[in-house]
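Title: Comparing notes on inverse folding

I've been comparing how different people in this forum approach sequence design from structure. To keep things fair, I'm posting one structure and asking everyone to reply with a full sequence. Here's the target:
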């Protein structure tokens, strides 16, 4: 009790504050998402995400050299195909955009960790994450295509596959397919807890995956639900998930904390496009300090339990760390 206890004693200098700091951020914990489109010599700005682009593979190689120099160690790859159809066939085509990209990236940057986003929504002409039966997404019919996509991505060089479709049973289907094809060492980083969130708004422009009709509420989680997240992670881990993701991050820190307390696999938080764009919009107006706000948002996720953070800020954060050192 005061005056014996004075919490300000350990806050007097920067060195003391560092000494007792409970959570740190390191570049090794961050994953940088990138958007790859078919074609060459393309660097297309995404208006709703200042500083983020769609890249053709050749231009992406230049960008990747830069982000690697900034300290990025892991990259999550999204593909924007040339061709869309009802079954999303370019997702599992060995010559599809993401497979071609992964092959090149792995060859040029074998030291980076390559994570393939695994979903059909960028590849289907209707923009849903599975195949349709009438106006509903057919869960079980989608599993085979997701499993084939995982095998195609692993064959192209993905180190991890990250299923983001939210079909029931897909982790198990993917694990079995990978193992049958000799990819038993390819990990599954599952978007186990993915909410039907308006914070994905800017991503729709980035990945060109807006559903043609309806929304994703029949497969993504209801934002009002907390307990249900634990059922999702339990099932995914039982089916073979090596890492589980909670997404979005900032509006769901309670869920992140629950998941962390529950499981023994590494837990990742995804700071999604809308979280990125809100920070960028405000800081570009000069309403908040970008570096301070980004650091605080990422530390909040670490504090809530994230072992890994997927963030569009990863290269910029790396740059700030280097400035600090220099
Ligand atoms: C779908 C997918 C989405 C995101 C990652 N994978 C969007 C969606 O489900 O509509 C969102 C990522 C972001 O907003 O940054 N495969």
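Reply #1:
Here's my take.
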């Amino acid at each position: 009790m005061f005056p014996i206890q004075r919490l300000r004693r350990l806050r007097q200098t920067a060195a003391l504050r560092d000494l007792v700091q409970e959570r740190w951020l390191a570049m090794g914990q961050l994953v940088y998402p990138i958007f790859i489109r078919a074609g060459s010599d393309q660097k297309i700005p995404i208006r709703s995400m200042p500083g983020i682009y769609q890249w053709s593979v050749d231009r992406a190689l230049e960008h990747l050299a830069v982000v690697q120099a900034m300290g990025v160690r892991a990259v999550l790859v999204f593909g924007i195909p040339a061709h869309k159809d009802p079954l999303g066939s370019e997702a599992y085509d060995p010559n599809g955009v993401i497979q071609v990209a992964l092959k090149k990236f792995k060859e040029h940057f074998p030291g980076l960790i390559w994570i393939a986003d695994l979903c059909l929504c960028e590849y289907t002409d209707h923009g849903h994450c599975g195949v349709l039966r009438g106006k509903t997404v057919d869960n079980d019919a989608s599993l085979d295509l997701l499993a084939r996509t995982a095998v195609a991505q692993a064959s192209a060089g993905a180190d991890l596959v990250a299923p983001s479709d939210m079909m029931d049973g897909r982790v198990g289907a993917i694990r079995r397919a990978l193992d049958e094809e000799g990819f038993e060492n390819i990990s599954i980083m599952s978007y186990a807890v993915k909410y039907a969130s308006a914070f994905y708004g800017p991503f729709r422009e980035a990945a060109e995956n807006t559903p043609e009709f309806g929304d994703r509420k029949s497969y993504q989680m209801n934002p009002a639900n907390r307990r249900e997240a634990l059922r999702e992670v339990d099932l995914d881990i039982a089916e073979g998930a090596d890492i589980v993701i909670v997404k979005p991050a900032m509006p769901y820190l309670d869920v992140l904390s629950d998941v962390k307390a529950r499981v023994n696999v590494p837990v990742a938080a995804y700071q999604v496009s809308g979280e990125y764009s809100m920070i960028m919009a405000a800081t570009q107006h000069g309403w908040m300090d970008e570096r301070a706000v980004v650091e605080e948002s990422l530390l909040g996720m670490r504090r809530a339990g994230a072992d890994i953070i997927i963030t569009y800020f990863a290269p910029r954060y790396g740059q700030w760390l280097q400035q600090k050192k220099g």
